């Protein structure tokens, strides 16, 4: 709505009025506006924001902007931001800061906190520990609902979520959870013990983020508790962070399926050399793998020499085989990722793909025969050779496309690499061998 | 944990005891167990569950199981389930039921409800309206915090979420929202008017689910209000339903990018003919498009006849071009889907892809030259022809791969179809033309 107005105020350099506009807005939208501006003006406006708003806005900036800001503000301002950020955002920030800044921050914190920061910095990337935050509501089972609500009233504003509360014993062991909904609908003097849910679903600090995302998907949670090896509650993960994880995991799959090393960086923000680096290794590997197809063609040079026309169908055969195989592998890879297909289903998958490929193979071979025999007026033996090859290629590629991702999963390799590029390379070699063998037979070369 | 125990109880047909085990569990896990069982036993156990648990379990069954259950239970049981289901789950059920069942249900409901059911059944698929539910907490701005909490205490258990409450005027117009967190941390006599957030982000009933998902992603909401054309609050969408939407949208993109018509059905549950149908049209289209490559090769038949060896590098050139192009198009398609790349960035994308392709092209061409000249002992002129073609192919395919998805977006076509299969077909024709042209030049044929 106010976009025009904000632009106008900017042009007229009415920064005071601009500030009044900004603080009415959602911090995420403020961040978006500041990110578009010249860094000097953005920084000035950022420092004009009320402190609590500034911290929120700061937490939404991308890492490189955060670094720039940290480099330009006073130690006192930095200290305030560090103190007020949610613990998980603070850890994310520290992970990206230069060593001297981290050291300064650690010096300013007490021993207990320092220990905890170090512990969090050591969780493996992509683990539950690296996603969690420590701002949760901690209740005791002896409390009444009234006491619990009073506790939330006092501390609730600084918690990441208050909608699921965690009941722990004196050793921080997780005994149960109780939702704020339950607290609100129950009587004040009811005991937490009686209304808490003891059948808690939780994850361990070292569990992979994919496991965590799968639980959120299945149960529709708002938050999930994270415990350490001794079953002590160490943090919680909230659903908004999981949406990011799901997006990242999907992006990773898309990248792997297009033969790239995965990267979390946004496309437009990544420099040309990093992008080239992520692409070149797979391209080289696949290019050199094509030596096989080259050898096959060289081996059948005589056949080709006698009927050069055969060469003109090679691209169509290879592409159709590759496409047919990628269709199958894509569905299986996606099924595995969403937990809809399991390695034990391999028999079902092969049988299904085999039947599909018969249908698809017949239709494609028939259309192709009609096209090249009647329209392109190609010799009938060549038309037959091409169509029969097409039929077998479709069957082979669909079955291979169905098997390879599951085989990868069984071998603990990421199924996503068994996608179009690799399948195409394998299917190419196969279809060329079939092609020239059938050609030798039918054309008696 | 209790998996062994449940199996044992099933084997020993101790259904009473089994029931006691089940009702301790999360309804989602009960559903999972029942789904694995023989339908007769599953149905018996289902009917033994307490009614409120049964409704929850029912809502998690896949549609075909729901249909089976509806076919086997009494009208009275069905009526109870329909009454107790959340409105969105009920609508989803009605959409899939045979007409006579829907009619029976409509007859049993009052006029007001019937009107509303009909309205909901008419929202376009994939619209915000089709995702929303009506069980939200409705507050008035004149209420105090104490009154609001009392209202939630009374009605909260039957609402889909109580964590965001909606403040409406007498015409059902949305005036603001207030979180349960705010209610709990404020004093009892504080007025809702003073603590509600008036800057509400909402969607319209006819907005696409992708728009809704983008808002959840950006702001990390738990729920989002949906209003009609007159700005009246008609329902809410909760984050758990959005996680499903995100998964479905991604699956759709994966399918389109592998040249399939998208389908929401799970792979293993879909019959062979439907799967074949979704794959065949694109395969046919791409196969017939390959006529171009065929024509190109036929046109250069003389070149090929004089140096048949050239044919052996065709697969490698085509595959490398296809792979290089898919890498670029995948990143751009994904960037567009996540809102990280916009159509206006087309210049940046082309410039970026051009620079990347120079680096990648030089490396690939060099490695390829060294390999085929020194290892495969190919004639230097042919080695040069192949390597120079490779260089230009990589450049062309990366630039095309970067442009096409953005062009599609500008033309309001789904960018996801500009993926590997289509890019490969285009790049094939291009690389073959370059190949034979360079061959004619270098080899003087």
From TrEMBL, chains A, B:
Domain of life: Bacteria
UniProt xrefs under PROSITE patterns: CBS
InterPro entries: CBS_dom (IPR000644), CBS_dom_sf (IPR046342), Mg_transptr_MgtE_intracell_dom (IPR006668), MgtE_N_sf (IPR038076), MgtE_transporter (IPR006669), SLC41_membr_dom (IPR006667), SLC41_membr_dom_sf (IPR036739)
GO molecular function: magnesium ion transmembrane transporter activity; metal ion binding
A Gene Ontology cellular-component term: plasma membrane
SMART domains for this protein: CBS, MgtE_N
Pfam families in the record: CBS, MgtE, MgtE_N
Summary of subunit composition and partner proteins: Homodimer.
Entry similarity comment: Belongs to the SLC41A transporter family.
Annotated function: Acts as a magnesium transporter.
Name under which the protein is recorded: Magnesium transporter MgtE
């Amino acid at each position: 709505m106010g976009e025009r107005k904000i632009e106008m105020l900017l042009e007229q350099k009415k920064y005071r009025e601009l500030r009044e506009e900004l603080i009415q807005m959602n911090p995420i939208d403020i961040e978006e506006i500041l990110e578009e501006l010249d860094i000097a003006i953005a920084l000035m406006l950022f420092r004009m924001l009320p402190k609590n708003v500034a911290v929120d806005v700061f937490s939404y900036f991308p890492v490189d902007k955060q670094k720039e800001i940290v480099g330009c503000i006073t130690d006192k301002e930095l200290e305030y931001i560090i103190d007020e950020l949610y613990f998980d955002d603070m850890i994310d920030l520290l992970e990206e800061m230069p060593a001297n800044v981290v050291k300064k921050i650690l010096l300013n914190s007490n021993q207990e906190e320092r220990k905890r920061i170090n512990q969090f910095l050591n969780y493996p990337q992509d683990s539950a520990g690296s996603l969690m935050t420590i701002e949760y509501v901690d209740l005791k089972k002896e409390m009444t609902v009234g006491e619990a609500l009073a506790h939330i009233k006092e501390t609730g504003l600084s918690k990441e979520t208050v909608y699921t509360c965690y009941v722990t014993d004196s050793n921080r062991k997780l005994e149960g959870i109780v939702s704020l909904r339950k607290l609100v609908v129950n009587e004040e003097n009811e005991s937490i013990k009686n209304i808490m849910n003891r059948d808690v679903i939780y994850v361990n600090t070292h569990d992979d983020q994919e496991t965590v995302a799968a639980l959120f998907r299945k149960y529709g949670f708002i938050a999930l508790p994270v415990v350490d090896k001794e079953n002590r509650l160490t943090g919680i993960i909230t659903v908004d962070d999981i949406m990011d994880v799901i997006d990242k995991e999907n992006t990773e799959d898309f990248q792997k399926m297009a033969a790239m090393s995965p990267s979390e960086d946004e496309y437009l923000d990544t420099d040309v050399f990093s992008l080239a680096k992520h692409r070149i290794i797979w391209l080289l590997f696949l290019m050199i793998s094509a030596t096989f197809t080259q050898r096959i063609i060289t081996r059948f040079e005589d056949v080709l020499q006698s009927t050069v026309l055969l060469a003109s169908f090679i691209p169509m055969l290879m592409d159709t085989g590759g496409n047919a195989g990628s269709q199958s592998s894509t569905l299986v890879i996606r099924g595995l990722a969403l937990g809809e297909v399991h390695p034990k289903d391999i028999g079902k998958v092969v049988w299904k793909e085999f039947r599909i490929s018969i249908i698809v193979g017949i239709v494609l071979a028939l259309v192709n025969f009609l096209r090249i025999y009647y329209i392109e007026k190609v010799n009938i033996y060549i038309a037959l050779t091409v169509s029969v090859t097409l039929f077998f290629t479709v069957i082979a590629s669909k079955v291979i496309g169905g098997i390879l991702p599951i085989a990868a999963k069984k071998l603990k390799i990421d199924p996503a690499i068994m996608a179009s590029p690799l399948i195409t390379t394998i299917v190419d070699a196969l279809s060329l061998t079939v092609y020239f063998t059938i050609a030798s037979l039918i054309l008696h070369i």
